[in-house]
Amino acid sequence: MDIRLAPEDRALQQQAREFTDQVLIPLEDECEEHDGLSAESHARAKRAVLDWRFEAINHAVEDGGRGYDVFQVMLIEEQWGRATGALWDIPWRPSIPLASGTEAQKERFLRPACRGERRDAYAITEAGAGSDPTMVETTAVRDGDGWVLNGTKWHVTSGDVADFFLVHAHVDGDPAKPTVFLVDKDAPGVRLVRIPKYTHTFVFEHPIFAFEDVRVSDDQVLGAVGEGFELTKAWFVEERLMIGARTMGASARALELSLGFAKRREQFGRPIVDFQAIEFMLADMAAEIMAATSMLYRVCWMAARGGMGRKAVHAQASAVKLVCSETAGRVIDRAVQIHGGRGYMREQPVERLSRELRVDRIWEGTSEIQRAVIGNELRKRGPDAYLAWPSA
Length: 392
Ligand SMILES: Cc1cc2nc3c(=O)[nH]c(=O)nc-3n(C[C@H](O)[C@H](O)[C@H](O)COP(=O)(O)OP(=O)(O)OC[C@H]3O[C@@H](n4cnc5c(N)ncnc54)[C@H](O)[C@@H]3O)c2cc1C
Description:
Layout: H1 7-24, H2 28-34, H3 39-51, H4 70-80, H5 103-115, E1 120-123, E2 139-143, E3 146-153, E4 164-171, E5 178-184, E6 190-194, E7 208-217, E8 221-222, H6 228-264, E9 266-267, E10 270-271, H7 276-305, H8 310-338, H9 349-356, H10 367-381, H11 384-387
Parallel strand pairs: 1-4, 2-4
Antiparallel strand pairs: 2-3, 3-7, 4-5, 5-8, 6-7, 9-10
Helix pairs in contact: 1-4, 4-6, 4-7, 6-7, 6-8, 7-8, 8-9, 8-10
Bound molecules: flavin-adenine dinucleotide.
C-alpha cells in the first residue's frame, strides 16, 4: 500500500496553498469589514483565478475546465478552505450536473460558466422542503412546446452573482417526476424576494428567489424529465466531499493559529502551551484532523482512481461529510478557547471560522441526514459498505 502523494498531486496542492495565501487570505479583512468584496476586489480576484488556472477545476478540458479528478479537486479545495469569508467560493466550480447537458446546453451554459463569463446557482430548497426534497412545491407544467415554472426557492447560494439557476422542480406537481431546469436569471418572472442575513460572513449571498410563470423551452430541461433527483444527488455527492475538504483545510489552519498563539501567549509567567489543559486541546485537534483527513483522502482517491461505483461513492461521501464537518466543529471550538478573548473577536480568523464551519453540519444534508444515509446503507449492504478495505 503506497499512500504517498504523486508528484503532480503534491505540486497542485502546493499551488492551491500559494493561491490561498497570496490571493484569498489578503481579502479576508475587507470581506469581514464590508460583508463582502467591492466590485474591484471581486474583479481582481476573478482575474487571479484565471491567471492561476483555477477556473472550473471540476470540469473536462474540452468544456473549458481544468480536467482534474475528484481527488485533485479535493486537494485544491482543502487548501482554499483555509480562507475565511467563504472566499473559496470565488474560484467558480460550475455544478457537476451541467456536464450531463446536451451540446447546445453546454455551449449556452456550461462552457461560458467554465470560462467565468456566466455563473450558476443551484435552487432546490424551499420554505417547506429541506431535508426532504420530495416536498418541493415548485411546479413545471407543460404549455405548448415549453414549460411554465412556479415556486419559491430559499438559500440560493451565490444567487446574487449567478446569472442562471439549476431549478429543481416537480413536473405537474408530481414528486415522481423531479426535473432540473436551466433558468436564466433575467427571464421574465424571476424575482428576487429578499436577501436574508446569516450567521457567517460569506463573500456572496444566499437570496430567496420566486419563479412566477417563468417560461422555459424544452432545451432548458437538464437530463430527462423525472431524472432531477439523480442529477441533484450527483451534485450532493461532489459538494459533500468538498465540504469534507474545506472543513479539513479550515481545521488545519485553526490548529496552526492555535499552536502559534499558545507558544507566544504568556500567562502566569510561561507560555500557555506549557499548561497541559492547552496542550491536550492541541493534541486532540491534531489527532482528530489526522483521522478525518485520512478518511477524506482515502474516499476521494477511491472515487477518482479506485473504480468505486456511483452508489458506493454516494454512501461514503455521507460518512466523509459527517465526520469532517463534526470534527471541524470540535476543532474550531477548541481553537476559540485557546485564543481566549481574542478568539471571540471578528478580526481573528478563528472567530470567523467558528461562525463559518457551523453551517457545514447543516447544508448539503444535515448531520442527521448523513447518518440516515449511512444507516440505510448498513441495512442494505452490511458493515462492509464502510469497513471493507479495497485491494488491488
Ligand atoms: C447558508 C446556507 C446556504 C445554503 N445553500 C443552498 C443552496 O445553494 N441551494 C439549496 O437548494 N439549498 C441550500 N441550502 C439549504 C440547505 O441544504 C438546507 O437548509 C438543509 O438541507 C436542511 O434543510 P432545512 O433547513 O429545511 O431543515 P429541515 O429539513 O427542516 O431540518 C430541521 C431539523 O430536522 C432534522 N431532520 C429532518 N429530517 C430528519 C430525519 N429524517 N431524521 C432526523 N432528523 C431529521 C434536521 O437534521 C434538522 O436538524 C443552504 C442553507 C444554508 C443555511
